[in-house]
Amino acid sequence: MLRLTSVEASYGHVKALRGISLHVGQGEIVTLIGANGAGKSTILQAISGLVRADSGSIAFDGQDTTRANSGQIVRLGLCQVPEGRQVFGSLSVADNLLLGAWSRWSGANRREVLADVQDQFERFPRLGERRSQPAGSLSGGEQQMLALARGLMSRPRMLMLDEPSLGLAPIIASQFLAEVSRLRDEGLTVLLVEQNARAALRTADRGYVLETGRIVLEGTAQDLLNNPEVQRAYLGKGDDVWA
Ligand SMILES: Nc1ncnc2c1ncn2[C@@H]1O[C@H](COP(=O)(O)OP(=O)(O)OP(=O)(O)O)[C@@H](O)[C@H]1O
Ligand SMILES: [Mg+2]
Question: Which of 32, 41, 50, 163 has most ligand 1 atoms within 8 Å of its beta carbon, as the pocket-test mutant?
Answer without folding.
Answer: 41
